[in-house]
Amino acid sequence: MIHYFLKRVISLLPVWIGITIFAFFLGLVSPGDPVYLSLTRDGITEPSEAMVNAKRAELGLDLPYHIQYVNWINRVIRGDFGKSIYDNEEIKAEMLRRMPVTLKLAFSAFVITVVAGLGIGAVMAATRDTILDRFLRQLCTLMVSIPGFCMAIILIAIFSECFHLLPTSGMEGVKSFIMPSLVLSMGTIGTSARLSRSNFIGEISKQYVLVASAKGMSKSFIGTWHIFKNAMIPIITFFGLYFAGILGGSAVIESIFALPGMGSYVIDAIYNRDYFIIQAFVLLTGTIYVLSNLLIDMLYFLINPRMKQGDSL
Amino acid sequence: MQGLTKMKKKQSYLWIILAIVMVLGVAGCSNNDVNATTDKPDEAAAQAALNENNESDRTADEEEDDEQVSDVADAEIVLAGTRNIAPGENDAYYCSSILMVWEPLIASDESGAPIPKLAASYSANEDYTIWTFQLKEGVSFHDGEPFNADAVIANFDRMKLGEKSSNFYTMNIDTTYPGLEKVEKLSDYEIQLVFASPLPTLDYAMTNFGSAMYSPKNFDAEGNFNGLPMGTGPFKLIENVLDSYTVIARNDDYYGDKAQIAQIRIKVIPDPDTRYSALKSGEVMGVLDLGAIQPVMAMSLVETGDFDISYTPSTITHYIIVNGNKFPFNDVRMRQAVSLLIDRELILDSFYAGLGYPTVNVLNQMTPFYEAFDIPHDVEKAKSLAKEVLGDERVSVALVLRSGELNRYPNKEEAELLQAQLKEIGVDAEITILDNAAWSAAVKEGEYDLSLKIKGLSSAEPVSLFSSMMKTDNSLNKSWSFGYSNTEVDKLIEDVSGELDMAKREAMYNRLQTIAVEELPVIPYFNDVTLVAFNKKIEGYEAVNYGVTLDKVHWAGQ
Amino acid sequence: MKMKRMEAMPFMILGAIVLITILAPLLAPFDPEMIDMQNRLSAPTAAHILGTDSLGRDTFSRVLYGGRQSILLAFAATLISMGIGTAVGFVAGYYGGKADLLITGISNVFLGIPGVSIMVAFAGVLGPGMNSLLIAVTVNSWVGFSRIVRGEVMQLKHANFIEGMKSVGASDGWIFIRHVLPNLSDSLIILFATKVGSVVLSVASLSYLGLGLQPPAPDWAIMISDARPYFREHPLLMAAPGAAIITFVWSVHAIGDYMRDKLDVNKGANDAL
């Protein structure tokens, strides 16, 4: 187990380095000058060339790219993400402030997805080929097909404007998170329900279940353990990747519902070409991605130790 | 076979459900509003429930406040802003002047002219090198520190620490007080500013953000704020949660007319549609700050009968900016053609609900130096001017839009209309929406022909505007690629700063405006208004040229 | 096995949408970009059966045209992604070893970076428009294909018939085209359908942010975005393009689902439907 773990860590290390390089250059290649934007952010001041150059030098942005990269990595390893170019706020503090918001959002969307996805999937598998199954399948497909922003606008119009049931925005308790997490989980509920359905069905019809039942094992035992265990593998993969992906995918939702999370932070940073924030963000999501891959592998290993390594990626 | 037909039926149910959801979501609501106006108790009940929710969500340490404000008249009013109205310690001003937390030495009246505020009166010597200010007595900061000459000097000392950036107005002592040699205390309530060269319009530069005053104990060593801002205004800032809300409370020790409401909470809701929904649902009572609400949406609220709007001329002018460094708009006739071609009234009526003032003047109306000019609209003349330049050829141009502007203004629709009209004069425009950074890069590199852009008049003393937009190779003229150059203009701009005679100064500004109208370094099309919308449950919510009368706001009927 | 009528429905709907979209110039009663300020925000009339938008353009015509760019973009980008992904995935799965390590590593780098960041960065670098969207989407979605293909190829590689082909000296390319590709086709078609749907949705959200397709091109997502200030009084402005985009994505996804079920049928893992 430990041997396997170490092996995985070593194989993921280059991926992590690749992500840092990509993160670094992603910011740099986009046109636009964050320094100029920062100096003109009141919409009134117009800086001279010299002022722009001075600030650029101060930030080390005039150095060759590879030196900038090394400097950046040096700082990052020591846990220093630097300050925003645009408004000079500490990036780490800002991220620590915003992270809980996105985590709350992602987590509630995740819970909705898991509960609804597995639930609907199980119901569909159990009632396979009945009207209910077909109806739910169409519903799942439909859920995957609605653009998130469209759904958000409609939900706000219905639940806030018309019925005054839910707040439009902000972070006032659980109620505020209902609509955004619903919108965010919409698409994944559909996908995960279908995935769960076919996996459950696939496992039910597999040989070993038949054998097990022939051996006289109780039906409920077959149901709750064998089927579940094996059906879970692809489902875990899906959810694991989903959780990493949600961090970047919540930008539009966050700005519509006025949630000060990571998504809206990075979108603003992209608009302002705030390299340091973009880099820190991509590094963070990349690291989470790498870690969740590791976690998935470990889970695989625990559920089914015969699994060949490397198959999950 | 029976099963099949069943399936088919169910499929059509699905579509019906989808259709119903869509229609309910969008149309159902407007029906509901018609009911709401006739069915007030219901709405009030919903509102009460909402208020209750808000209250139960509060934390324990706020309970104390609640006791004080338990009176209905003093219940907190919740408003929504478009951005962080109080960006915090690292902002040069901590919060916008809209909040009325801090006050300047010199404020501005409705026309933008300077009026005394914390300075009770002021005067300058004959050659405008020494300015003397008598300070208001009996004023104290929110932390109890007295406002006096020492406090003013502390604020100047802070400014001298170096430029401070801000979301509102960069604080730079060298731009606001150029050539300041010393700040002298004459008595406890009198100070003197001594300059190296004449500054005849210093008072204009000092208005509002130019002379904000804070408690001398409010700064850290670097000149940033060491906590909440301690101003002298009618409101104290008592709680600030970045990107969520800011709470201000009445300053009961205010020297002037005290605020009418005990407490106001201003939420940050950046998305314009969400802000509209929050207002409509009764979650917030009003909206404020730049681009608080788009005019057409405000009008649709007014139609429901539960909401009202207030507006007043603002310092913002909408321009069609042009790349004067390259064909075709390097030719003044093409710029004139565009100005003649566009129907300013139509644009305003269609996309701004008629709220705004058509203009051809580069200078915004919020200054005593503003001149009104005739606004010609003559499509035939536009066509013939364009024909002189283009002949029978058609020309393709790039019309770029800045994505940051699209949340506030209907620029996209304006651009589409402009695009259609430009076809008539032989110009084929291709619209591209660029994000803010790419837009800045494109206009700077001259990789555009036309764009729509707003610009606010930062001071009622317009020299900085003329210098920025019209002086050869200067500032915006350069970074927005106007490529405008006129030796007479350059000379006027240079001379006007040192001109001590007000009448002559005015004449020079007139001349600059006239030249701008003829040569159109940019094509202004209208002067904007500050527009706010509010629920009729509150009163006294009036737009002022920058902000809203927060100190007059109160619950209706109280 | 004959396709049942109900199952044919998504195919018919998709076919109808594609046909309408292609024939839009013949079917549309108005030029979708024709501005008529006298007639703005009109309710449905005999001439404008879905009313007009804030510039007086005919909503019905715009909806007919509205799929042209995004559907073309989605199909083109997904095809290219599929091509690249399949080739790369085959190399990784078939040859294994260092090539596999390298490709898997690179794939993971792409997977580890949020799609939005990649798309916005590319839209930024190349300037918004069809081409940059095409590249952005491709960069973002080839990995999905290469992962699947790699996995399947790794399983196939050890199948007897492939081993047999190798032993008689068949070239790798030939094995790929004649024996691997046909075995992959089912999974690829399913993934293709899913991707086309999701590409349409992600282009829509970019367009919603203003960085996707550019005005005045009639496009469903842009129409939804433009309708925001008006949709409460004029619900059709949002409902019409909204229904169109949802119907399109739904039909594509439904086809993907159908293929998936059919695949299960072939594998005998499911009862005949």
TrEMBL record, chain A:
Q: How does it sit in the membrane?
A: Multi-pass membrane protein
Give the subcellular location: Cell membrane
Q: Does the keyword Transmembrane helix apply?
A: yes
Q: Which UniProt keywords apply?
A: Cell membrane, Membrane, Transmembrane, Transmembrane helix, Transport
**Top-rank taxon, per record:** Bacteria
ABC transmembrane type-1 domain sequence ranges:
99-300
Q: Does the keyword Amino-acid biosynthesis apply?
A: no
Q: What is this protein called?
A: ABC transporter permease
UniProtKB/TrEMBL annotation, chain B:
**Which SUPFAM superfamilies does the record match to this protein?**
Periplasmic binding protein-like II
Instruction: Cite the Solute-binding protein family domain residue spans from the record.
Output: 114-474
**Main location (coarse class):** membrane
Its topology with respect to the membrane?
Answer: Lipid-anchor
Has the keyword Transmembrane been applied to this entry? Answer: yes
Q: Which PROSITE patterns match?
A: PROKAR_LIPOPROTEIN (PS51257), SBP_BACTERIAL_5 (PS01040)
Name of the featured protein:
ABC transporter substrate-binding protein
User: Do you know which InterPro entries this protein is assigned to?
Assistant: Peptide/Ni-bd (IPR030678), SBP_5 (IPR039424), SBP_5_CS (IPR023765), SBP_5_dom (IPR000914)
